Amino acid sequence: MAFDIAVKRVYEPAQPGDGQRVLVDRIWPRGVAKKDAALTLWMKDVAPSDELRKWFGHEPERWTQFQERYGGELDANDEAVEQLRALLSKGRVTLLFGAHDEAHNNAVALAGYLLRHPRA
């Protein structure tokens, strides 16, 4: 079964086609009211560790290594990953992030991980 995963900035308005909206950042995004985020769930536990997030610093030259390290953290985080897989089994899930870089962020890395590892 292929997952239907979308990724977008939490600052973009919610759309009917978003499905379940899941914020996958450890820190709440600045300037976003909880009601405006229209979240199904805020999954802090699936976000990269503070140490990894600070090391990465959204520097594109660290992207490949960030994805590998984050994948290792996700491998050790069965409960949170399984919770996401359960949501995905019900239809589209939009992973939301607050970073400015739309190509190099934890939500993109997480979507890639879930597509490569549909089952534990």
TrEMBL record:
Phylogenetic classification of the source organism: Bacteria, Pseudomonadati, Pseudomonadota, Alphaproteobacteria, Hyphomicrobiales
Organism: Mesorhizobium amorphae CCNWGS0123
Name recorded for this polypeptide: Uroporphyrin-III C-methyltransferase
UniProt-listed InterPro entries: YeaO-like
Superkingdom of origin: Bacteria
